C-alpha cells in the first residue's frame, strides 16, 4: 500500500518527496527530502496534497502532461554545499561541476544543474545516509543532522512566481524569514516554522 501524505506522515520511510518553496524575497526553491526531511505541516494539511505536489513537481521536471514547461532562464548555476555521502567518490567540487556541465551539454533535462540553469530555482536536498552522521554538507562549518536541507544548487538568474502555472501556485509554501541567497542550511526540526503558509494568488 502506497503511503499517503497527510497530517500523520513522518519522514524516514526512504520514500523521496519533492516540494516547492518561496523565500521572503520571492525566490523559488525545489526541495528534495531524500526520505528524511520533514515537509511543512501546512502542506501536509491539504487534502490529496500528494497528487497536487506531483502536478507541481512534474511541471518543474518537464514531465507534466497537464502543463507545458517552456521556462528556460538560460542562466548558469553554482554548487554551494554538497553531500559527503552521495559524492564520496568525487575528489572535489570541480569534478561534480564537470559532470553536471556535461549533463547540461547533452541536454539531460533531469540533471540537477537544470533546476538552476534552466528553471532559475535554488535546489535544496535533505541529508541522508544509512546511519546518523554518515552524511554531512561539504563546505558547511556548522552542525548538521540527517534530514537537514542543504543548499546544493544556486541559480544565477532567478525564477519568479510567474514562471509557475497559475493553478499550481497555491501548492507552493512561503517563508517570511528565510532568504535562499544567504541561508545555506535549513534545520529539519524547524521546517514548519520556516514555511508556515501557502502562496495565495
What do these coordinates show?
Strand 1 and strand 2 form a beta hairpin. The strands form 2 sheets. Strands 1, 2, 3, 5, 7, 8, 9 and 10 form an 8-stranded mixed beta sheet that branches. The protein has about 200 residues and is α+β, with helices and mostly antiparallel strands. The mean pLDDT is about 95. It is built from 5 helices and 10 strands, in the order ββααββααβββββαβ. It has helices at about 40-45, 50-60, 95-105, 110-115, 190-195, and strands at about 20, 30, 75-80, 80-85, 120-125, 135-140, 150-155, 175, 185, 195-200. Helices cover about 20% and strands about 15% of the residues.
β-sheet strand percentage: 15-25%
* Broad shape: globular
Q: Find the structural class using helix and strand composition.
A: alpha+beta
Task: Work out the count of structural domains.
Answer: 1
SSE pattern, N- to C-terminal = EEHHEEHHEEEEEHE
Average pLDDT, rounded to a whole number, is: 94
Rg over CA atoms, rounded to whole Å, is 16 Å
Number of helices: 5
Helix content: 10-25%
Q: Identify the quaternary structure here.
A: single chain
* Low-confidence runs of at least 5 consecutive residues: none
Q: Describe the sheet with the most strands.
A: 8 strands, mixed
Strand segment tally: 10
| Terminal Cα span | 35 Å
In short:
With 201 residues, the chain is α+β, with helices and mostly antiparallel strands. The chain has helices at 41-44, 49-61, 93-105, 112-117, 191-194, and strands at residues 18-22, 28-32, 77-79, 82-83, 122-126, 137-138, 149-155, 173-174, 185-186, 197-198. Helices cover 20% and strands 17% of the residues.
Amino acid at each position: 500500500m502506497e503511503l499517503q501524505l497527510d497530517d500523520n506522515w513522518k519522514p524516514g520511510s526512504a520514500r523521496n518527496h519533492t516540494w516547492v518553496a518561496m523565500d521572503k524575497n520571492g525566490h523559488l526553491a525545489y526541495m528534495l527530502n531524500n526520505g528524511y526531511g520533514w515537509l511543512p505541516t501546512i502542506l501536509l494539511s491539504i487534502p490529496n496534497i500528494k497528487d497536487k505536489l506531483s502536478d507541481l513537481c512534474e511541471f518543474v521536471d518537464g514531465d507534466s502532461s497537464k502543463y507545458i514547461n517552456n521556462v528556460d532562464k538560460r542562466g548558469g548555476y553554482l554548487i554551494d554545499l554538497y553531500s559527503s555521502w552521495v559524492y564520496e567518490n568525487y575528489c572535489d567540487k570541480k569534478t561534480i561541476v564537470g559532470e553536471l556541465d556535461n549533463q547540461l551539454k547533452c541536454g539531460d533535462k533531469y540533471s540537477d544543474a537544470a533546476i538552476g540553469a534552466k528553471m532559475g530555482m535554488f535546489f535544496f536536498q535533505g541529508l541522508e545516509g544509512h546511519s546518523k552522521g554518515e552524511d554531512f554538507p561539504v563546505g558547511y562549518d556548522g552542525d548538521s543532522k540527517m534530514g537537514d536541507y542543504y543548499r546544493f544548487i544556486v541559480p544565477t538568474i532567478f525564477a519568479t512566481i510567474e514562471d509557475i502555472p497559475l493553478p499550481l501556485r497555491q501548492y507552493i509554501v512561503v517563508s517570511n524569514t528565510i532568504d535562499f541567497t544567504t541561508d545555506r542550511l535549513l534545520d529539519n526540526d524547524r521546517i514548519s516554522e520556516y514555511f508556515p503558509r501557502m502562496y495565495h494568488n
